[in-house]
Design goal:
It is a single chain. It is built from three helices and seven strands. It is of the alpha+beta class. The chain has two domains: 89 residues, TonB (TolA/TonB C-terminal domain, 2-Layer Sandwich), CATH 3.30.2420.10; 33 residues, no CATH class.
């Protein structure tokens, strides 16, 4: 039987207090979908990079791949709310860099849907120019999303 080797980590990197579940909760509570993105049905991910100082404070937040329509600014705002645990390695202050993506997904309730239809009636005329019969077999449909 082989023994598992212990993983050795030279540096202890700052961790978000509460872990992944707490981070997800912070996103759900604080991320606000920008109005402009809602109006234009914009979905996707905003990719960010940022630094964390030895006290766990986030700084130097940059958008590496954005969506526009206010999503980039909102993602930066939420990331600046983060606070990580202090990280010291053998008494040395450590600065860490992280990359993250913030998802912007529309809920079904956020997507507007309108359905209209109308009948198109045509009058048939005889050879003398008199109206004879209405043909109501044609329909026109309009579907607006947004």
């Amino acid at each position: 039987m082989k023994k598992k080797k212990k993983e050795k980590h030279f540096l202890k990197l700052p961790q978000y207090s509460g872990g992944k579940e707490s981070f997800t909760k912070l996103l759900k509570e604080n991320l606000k979908y920008p109005e402009e993105a809602l109006k234009n049905n914009i979905e996707g991910d905003v990719h960010l990079s940022f630094d964390i100082d030895h006290n766990g404070k986030v700084f130097n937040v940059k958008v590496t791949h954005g969506l526009g329509y206010g999503c980039d600014e909102e993602a930066v705002r939420v990331i600046e709310l983060l606070s990580y645990e202090k990280a010291r390695n053998r008494g040395v202050k450590v600065k860490a860099s992280k990359k993250i993506k913030i998802p912007f997904r529309l809920r079904k309730a956020d997507i507007g849907f309108q359905y209209n239809y109308q009948t198109v009636s045509k009058l048939k005329t005889d050879q003398k120019g008199k109206d004879q019969k209405k043909d109501s077999g044609s329909y026109s449909y309009t579907i607006n999303i947004g």
